[in-house]
Amino acid sequence: MVNRGQQLRMNRLVERLFTESCSRPVEGIEKELQKLGFTQTGGDLRALQFGHRGFELFLELMLDENQCVHSYRILTFVERDKPQPKFRW
C-alpha cells in the first residue's frame, strides 16, 4: 500500500514538469522522469508509457509529429486496472 500523500506529491511534481516544459522534445522529459524514478514500460511513435512502482503511478505521454509532448495522463495503478464500462451505441 502506498502513502496517498506521497503519491499526490509525486503527481504534482509530474504535472509541474509538463507545465514548465510545454514544447520541449520528449528526450529531455524522459530524463527528468527517470530522475523521479519512472521507468519506460512501453510505447511507439505516438505514445510512451511509464510506470513508477514505488508510488504505483502510470503515466502515458501522447506525442505530436515533432516528438514533443502533446498531452499526458497520469493514473494510479488502481485506476488503470479498473475495468472500463462497455461502450454501446
Word description of this protein:
This protein is an alpha+beta fold and 89 residues long. The protein has one domain (4-81): Double Stranded RNA Binding Domain, CATH 3.30.160. Helices cover 37% and strands 29% of the residues. It has helices at 4-20, 26-36, 77-81, and strands spanning 39-43, 47-52, 57-63, 69-76. Strands 1-2-3-4 form a 4-stranded antiparallel β-sheet. β3 (57-63) and β4 form a beta hairpin. It is globular, with a radius of gyration of 14 Å. It starts with a helix and ends in an 8-residue tail after the last helix.
Strand content: 25-35%
In the residues, how many domains can be counted?
Answer: 1
Largest sheet: 4 strands, antiparallel
Radius of gyration, CA atoms, in whole angstroms: 14 Å
* Oligomeric composition of the shown chains: single chain
Strands of the widest sheet, in order across it, are 1-2-3-4
At the first level of CATH, the class is: Alpha Beta
N- to C-terminal distance: 38 Å
- List low-pLDDT spans: none
Task: Give me the number of helical elements.
Answer: 3
CATH architecture: 2-Layer Sandwich
Number of strands: 4
User: What best-fitting shape do the alpha-carbon axes yield?
Assistant: globular
Briefly note the structural class of the backbone: alpha+beta
Mean pLDDT: 87
Please trace the helix and strand order, writing H or E for each element: HHEEEEH
